[in-house]
Structure formats: C-alpha cells, structure tokens
Amino acid sequence: MNKFSIGVDLGCTNLRIAAVDGHGTLIEKVTLATRLSRGRDHVIAEMCDAIQSMSDKFKSSAPLQGIGIGVPGIIDVETGLVRDPNLPDWVDYPVHATIEKRLNTVVIFENDANVAALGEKWLGAAKDFADMAMLTLGTGVGGGLVLQGALWRGANGMAGEFGHVTVEPEGELCTCGNRGCLELYASATGIVRQAREAIASNAASALARSAESDSEFNAKSIFDLAMQGDGDACRIFRFVGRRLGIELAGLVNSFNLPIYVIGGGVASAWDAFAPSMFEELRQRSMVYSATVPHTGIAMAGQPSSVNVQSRTGRQTIIARTLLGGDAGLYGAARLPMLNSQ
After folding, report:
1. How many Å apart are CA 129 and CA 27, to the nearest integer?
2. Would you give the end-to-end CA distance of the chain in angstroms?
3. For residue 303, which phi and psi values (nearest 5 degrees)?
4. CATH architecture of the domain with range 4-118+326-339
5. pLDDT tens-digit profile of 209-231?
6. CB-based contacts of 105: which residues, under 8 Å, 6+ apart?
7. pLDDT, tens digit, for every residue of 115-153?
8. Does domain 129-321 sit in CATH 3.90.740.10?
9. Which helix (H) or strand (E) holds 201?
C-alpha cells in the first residue's frame, strides 16, 4: 500500500469513516450512529477514537497523509468553523482546531456536498472532466462545483447552494427564509411532505395505507409505490423531476459545464423522476437542447458510453452518481492528498 488518508462523512444520522489509498482503493470502512442528542463533545470523541483506531491499524504499512471531514452546512475554510442549524452546538465552536489537536495530524474540513462532488470528479461519473457540478438529493439538497479540477467555493465559501435556488416562486416557505427552494421539493424530506399532503386529501389512497402500515414511511416507500404504478406517487416524482429540470436548466445555461451529476439517496429514484426532468430541461435550456447527446445516454446517465457528437461538437451530460453513498467518503479522503501536492 502507498500513502493513505482517512475520509469522514459526518451526517446527522450516520458517521462513516474510511481509509483510502492514493489510487482510490478503499482499504476499510466503518459506520457508526451519529448521536447528536448526546452533544458535540460526545460526537467528536467517538469520531476521533474511530479515526485513531483506523490510523493505528494501517500506519505501520504506509504513511498517513491526513484526515478529510465532510460536514453539513457552511464551512469557514480559514477558521474551520461550522455554520449549520442541524448542528447547533457546533456553530462558532473551534471544531477543526479541537479535532486536529486531538489527532495530532492534518485535518481538513469541507462541506459534505463539496466532498461528494470531489469524489465523483476523482473516481466517479465526472472523472474524465475538468469541470463539473453535482447536486446531492438527500435529507436536504446540497451542491458542489469543481472547476479546472479544483473545488470552487466562491468569495465566502458559500458557492454551490443549489438547494436554495427558487424553482417555485410562490412556493412553500423554506427554513432559509426563501420560498420555493429546490430543497422543499427534491429532497427526501420534501418528497415525504408532498406525500403527506396527498394523503390529507385522500385518506383511502395507497400512499395513506403505506404510511399507516409502515412506521418508517419515507421517500423510498413512495418510490416503491411509483414503480408499482401508483398514480399519486408517480405524480410526486414527476413534480420532483420538473423542479430538478428547472434548476438544471438554469445551471446549464449559466455555466455550460460538460457534466452535471445527481447524487444522494433520492438519486436511487432516478427511473421515477428522470423522464420529466429531461423533458423540462429540454424545454427550458437552449444550451442543453443544442448539446444533448443524440444517443439515449442522457436517460441512462452513464457518461462513459457517449460516442455521438452533438451539433456543437460538445455534449452536456446529466448523469447519476457512480459512487453512490460513498462519493463523500472518497472526496473527503481526497482532500489531504490534494493538500500535499
């Protein structure tokens, strides 16, 4: 084994840690519950103990380059401070300095969607492209931009907040203060909210029966119903697809990047939302219409198979994640490697 680094994906539900070598080989991965209710100090202690154990296990075989940690919310790269309402006791606390001192090695903090984008750029759907954007459809909706092979953070480290772009001008009120944000419609939380609204108007529907019988009624439950042809579930995912199409049309027209990757847990419902997403995208983006691949590749979401040139000679690819839920782990592990170059 050559040099390795450790990537951490800190979610509000799970804490995942992986050792990855310089070639992108996953050496080991562990998953723990993120016990936010026990407080910041408990989460940090558990995370550091797991990282230290993994480091001790492999450091005799190869040198550790450092630790990369993907966390939800906005990261102040210069100070290492975290700003996220889902981690209230982390806000304005010197988390980065505390962890780095405890582990006595290089630690790099980054937004979780940014590291997912970096993972897809390194080893996933966008590995053959210098420029890319990624939307992560999970509990919320995040985003990341990679330009000329490097993360683009913007002037204040806040670039890529795709989840808080308006797609429904008079839509629902978002926690960010805006109305009609993409996050309200294309996240797992938003899909469940739309299902609950449908149930309220039809208590005898299949959605209602599923919600009553399934204590863990979630976006996957709704997707399963859509794949069985349930009308209400299908309408929800068509709506999700249209709102994603509106968002992507704006991104394609603004950035004209070669590839846009859709990741996060909701991406597994691709077959339910992709048709309406592509239909909306074609209608709303002249750039996409001029550069869409002439094969069925856009629907399949596999950019490596594209072999037909568009009218302009360059194509705009909309692809599913190839790394799935591990995109953030690989991207986090990649951070110390890039830092040492």
Report:
1. 26
2. 19
3. -60, -25
4. 2-Layer Sandwich (3.30)
5. 999 999 999 999 999 999 999 99
6. 55, 64, 66, 67
7. 999 999 999 999 999 999 999 999 999 999 999 999 999
8. no
9. helix 188-201
